[in-house]
């Protein structure tokens, strides 16, 4: 493993931005494209938001842990909580399914995460929490061609 980090924070909506900022800094050394960085931050944001809203029912008391490992241009991120767990994971993964209809939730979180990740897994247990794990491989840095140095 080339580098790793762990961040734990209270399950408050304002801390979702903190998680995004930390992952951006962690990835800066591999010089990702704007699109790659945006996709990684979106996956992380969806996982953290799900933990806050669904895992802890926005109680502001639980703890979310984000850990990341980087090997070359591949990152593995794990977002875990000790919240309520997901009652029916297969149903929760269905596009447009949400348990928060009155809160204008789109039900696209898992679909978005799976689309942007190269590998994606969810483990959950009722009353014990949920772990979201994803891997993303970033493209090799390409040198500029056709540019002369003066």
UniProtKB/TrEMBL annotation:
Residues of the Histidine kinase/HSP90-like ATPase domain: 35-140
InterPro entries reported for this sequence: Anti-sigma-factor_SerPK (IPR050267), Anti-sigma_F (IPR010194), HATPase_C_sf (IPR036890), HATPase_dom (IPR003594)
Record-linked HAMAP family: Anti_sigma_F
Function, as annotated: Binds to sigma F and blocks its ability to form an RNA polymerase holoenzyme (E-sigma F). Phosphorylates SpoIIAA on a serine residue. This phosphorylation may enable SpoIIAA to act as an anti-anti-sigma factor that counteracts SpoIIAB and thus releases sigma F from inhibition.
This protein's name: Anti-sigma F factor
MF annotations from Gene Ontology: ATP binding; protein serine kinase activity; protein serine/threonine kinase activity; sigma factor antagonist activity
Sequence similarity: Belongs to the anti-sigma-factor family.
Pfam families xref list: HATPase_c_2
EC identifiers of the protein: 2.7.11.1
Gene: spoIIAB
Keywords linked to the UniProt accession: ATP-binding, Kinase, Nucleotide-binding, Serine/threonine-protein kinase, Sporulation, Transferase
Single Gene Ontology BP annotation: sporulation resulting in formation of a cellular spore
Catalytic activity: L-threonyl-[protein] + ATP = O-phospho-L-threonyl-[protein] + ADP + H(+); L-seryl-[protein] + ATP = O-phospho-L-seryl-[protein] + ADP + H(+)
């Amino acid at each position: 493993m080339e580098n790793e980090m762990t961040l734990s924070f209270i399950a408050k909506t304002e801390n979702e931005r903190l998680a995004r900022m930390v992952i951006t800094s962690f990835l800066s050394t591999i010089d990702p494209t704007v699109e790659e960085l945006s996709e990684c931050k979106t996956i992380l944001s969806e996982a953290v938001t799900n933990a806050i809203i669904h895992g802890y029912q926005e109680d502001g008391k639980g703890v979310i842990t984000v850990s990341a490992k980087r090997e070359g241009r591949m990152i593995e991120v794990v977002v875990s909580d000790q919240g309520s767990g997901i009652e029916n994971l297969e149903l929760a993964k269905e596009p447009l399914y949400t348990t928060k209809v009155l809160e204008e939730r789109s039900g696209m979180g898992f679909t978005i995460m799976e689309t942007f990740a190269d590998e994606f897994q969810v483990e959950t247990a009722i009353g014990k929490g949920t772990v979201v794990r994803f891997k993303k491989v970033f493209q090799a840095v390409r040198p500029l061609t056709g540019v002369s140095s003066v």
